[in-house]
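Kindly inspect what follows.
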Amino acid sequence: MVPRMLREIAEYPNSFGPLAPGDERIETDRYTLYLGAGSTWNTVQRQRFPLEQVDDVLAEVRAALRARGRTQTQWEVGSSAPSGLVEALLERGLVPDKDPYAVALVLTREPPAIAPAFIARQVETLEELGAAARVQWEAFEATPEEIEEARRLLPERFRDSPTLRHAVWLGGEIVCTGTASPTEHGLLLYGGATARHARGRGAYRALIRARWDDAVARGTPALITQGGSMSRPILERLGFERVGEVHMLLDVFS
């Protein structure tokens, strides 16, 4: 049985990970609002309010974002959210996000070893971080505006962020990457991505093993993540257990 705490973290990872420079987390008794560095990455998580309060919460969240110059947010609605919340938000004009459904996943047993063709470890230089980020931007089809904002933040992230960045090399080239946040319960995994020309060769499996080895070295042998349409099948083959589901909605307002 996966502990209840790991299940909640898997549904709402941004509510539990360490904050990087420029991040902010607003905790209330009804929800958690996470604001990432920059202006576009915001998410509402851990919804725990009666459904009849949805209009009040929407107005409160939008006001908090407007006060910070932000006009959009994602809502991540997990299995533990109030019943009917997804439908209520859709009725109020929110729309499904680009990848609108994910499964909350937890790994608590050792994954396969890294194949000899790959090297997998944390990035060690700003240049490596930039190369890894480019793989991620391409894989997730980031817009020019998103790329420019992320590129501007790279030096600060490299210098000060508590987030770990792992990469996988094949023939001297970074072909796979992902970030991870350490917690007392395990590593939270984000944004795993593989370059198109290297897919299907084991790079993503190598990335998972490198992160697992770091989790073990920290005394917290668990990997916690959400699997979307692309990553979920391989994560489950590697031994990740389903512990919940998450619906992603987008709220854009003026």
In short: The chain is about 30% helix and 30% strand. Residues 137 and 177 are 11 Å apart (CA to CA).
